[in-house]
# Entry
Amino acid sequence: MSIDRGHRGRFYYGAQGGQGTPGSPVLPAGYYENLRINEVEGTEAVRSAGARRPVELEEGMWGIEWGYDIPKVQGSAAALLWLNYALATGSPPDLTWLTLAYGDSRGQWAVQDCRVDTQDFTLDNTGWVRGSMGGFGGKVSTTTLPVQTFIAGTGFAVHEAVFSLFELASLRLSLRNNLRMTPVIAGPATTRNPVRKWDYLLLGPEDVSGTLGLYNVSGYDLAAPDLPSLSPTLTLTNKANPYEADLLTINGLKFVNSQLTIPGADPDIEWEVPFLALYYTFAAV
# Structure
């Protein structure tokens, strides 16, 4: 038995040509922490009249839930490539299949047939642009990974960000693809590996929401017959060499409500303004 620590962790990915075709996980996903890989076994107790204890413990559908936190969002082309795998593209919109690989100095594993289900970005009035991503996956197998490498670039600090509508105390932005691991009753052509793995990883309705923290009233009349449909931008830059700049555009934003909080004598007075949006894009400028 040996013990390893987080600084010896490894996390890479690679795009797949389609479901069932593993990719080559050789690309670093950027800065990460709190990487979570949860094998969902689906085991349930079978009970019967006449027995106080379960009469059987039956395995159910098997799959992978994965997620991690981004301690500082980076903005290079390589970082944007990974972050944009959360956004469905094409007609009809679809998500890219991915192979994720993880481990430490003791062992490494690859998970094929992964998709991104959730993405979050968080900005406060100090510090860095932070985030998180998560999703689902399928078959797990052993692999070999090099010692961790990272995407080049220093990442974005909040003092280098500019929002197009207001001065902000904070910004929260969330995407939910509402994926669902779905098993079926097998047909003559159904194949599964492992045998209890889900059969389909279906996209659900796309939900984009968030919250603006304002130091002053927004100036918009939330009692108006029609609320404005806004498309604000958040420009993120860094002063590093090489210089990088990305543009986050939130399309079709509408306010949900506006809550004023007057705290104690010292903290700042803020308005909290939740919103819904149609979609967002994240691109280099």
